[in-house]
Each structure stands twice: as structure tokens, then as C-alpha cells.
Design brief:
Blueprint: H1 11-26, H2 29-88, H3 94-108, E1 113-118, E2 121-129, H4 131-145, E3 148-157, E4 160-168
Antiparallel strand pairs: 1-2, 2-4, 3-4
Helix pairs in contact: 3-4
Length: 173
């Protein structure tokens, strides 16, 4: 290389480089060996912490994460199958839907639930209904009346759920 193609350092860096080279040459061979070993250890530690350790951690955590994602995928596939099944079910008439909702509400008991029907919507007022009872009522409403919840204002207490649940009947929103 000739002088024109050489890259030159800024003067301050060139002076620092020259000073470092002079100090290195002034060290005894044993001190150079110790300094070299220390630099290699620092370099290995740096490579470990930046490149190897994160990859190692990812490899260790991957199986558990894959299992969680597989469980989520299976749950989503079950929900998609249930949705396809529900879409394929024939609609029911308003009279049959009202009867199905009344029947499901009667199973909750007159002191725990009151049903109000208004066209294509039904409002269920609850007092002290357990989560299991509410889940069964929703299942019956969905399968028997083709109703789906559109609004819920429920509070949970020691006695169970209380509040209102509005469902839409048939193919309406």
C-alpha cells in the first residue's frame, strides 16, 4: 500500500494508538501473557453474554412455549369447530325461541331470575345465580333459542352473580 491509499486516523486517536503500542512493548513477556489471557477471557465473556446465553435460554424455554401455543391452538380449533357447527344449525322461530328461554329461566328459579322478552331481544335479570347455573342457562339459550349475549352488566358476590344479561335472538344483532 502506498501513502495515498492508507486510511489515516484522527491525530488524537493516532497518538493514543502510538502510546498504547509503546506501553505494550514496554511490558515484560510475562505481563503481556497475563494481559492477553485477561483480554481473551473478557472477549469470551462478552461473546457468551451477547451471543450464546440468549440462544441457550431460548432453546431451554422453547419446549414449554411450544406446548402452551399448541394448547392455545387446540382451544381455538375447538372454538372454530363449535362456531361452524352453530352456523350450520337451522334457525328457530320466535315462539320456539321464547319458549326455550322461558324454560331455561324457570330452571334457575323465580327468586333468582326474571326474563323480559322484547321483540328480538331478551333481558334476563339475575339475583344470586352461581357461575355454573349461568353457564348452563347460556348454553340452553344458545342451543335452544339460538340466542347470543350482546350486553352483560353482572356483579359477583358471595351469593353469586347479580345484574342483567341481554341476549339477541335468531340472526339479529
Amino acid at each position: 500500500m502506498n501513502d495515498k491509499t492508507k486510511l489515516s486516523l484522527p491525530p488524537a486517536m493516532a497518538a493514543a494508538r502510538t502510546q498504547a503500542q509503546d506501553r505494550w512493548r514496554a511490558l515484560a513477556p510475562r505481563e503481556r501473557l497475563i494481559a492477553t489471557i485477561a483480554l481473551v477471557l473478557i472477549g469470551v465473556g462478552l461473546v457468551w453474554s451477547v451471543a450464546v446465553q440468549p440462544a441457550w435460554r431460548t432453546i431451554g424455554e422453547a419446549p414449554a412455549q411450544i406446548d402452551r401455543l399448541d394448547a392455545q391452538l387446540q382451544a381455538m380449533q375447538r372454538m372454530a369447530a363449535e362456531t361452524r357447527e352453530l352456523r350450520g344449525v337451522s334457525p328457530v322461530g320466535p315462539a320456539q325461541a321464547h319458549d326455550a328461554l322461558r324454560s331455561a329461566t324457570e330452571r334457575l328459579g323465580a327468586e333468582k331470575a326474571r326474563l323480559s322478552l322484547q321483540g328480538d331481544r331478551a333481558t334476563l335479570t339475575l339475583t344470586g345465580v352461581t357461575g355454573e347455573q349461568l353457564s348452563h342457562w347460556l348454553g340452553e339459550a344458545r342451543s335452544g333459542a339460538r340466542a347470543r349475549p350482546v350486553e352483560a352488566q353482572l356483579t359477583r358476590s358471595a351469593g353469586g352473580y347479580a345484574g342483567t344479561l341481554i341476549v339477541a335472538l335468531g340472526g339479529t344483532n
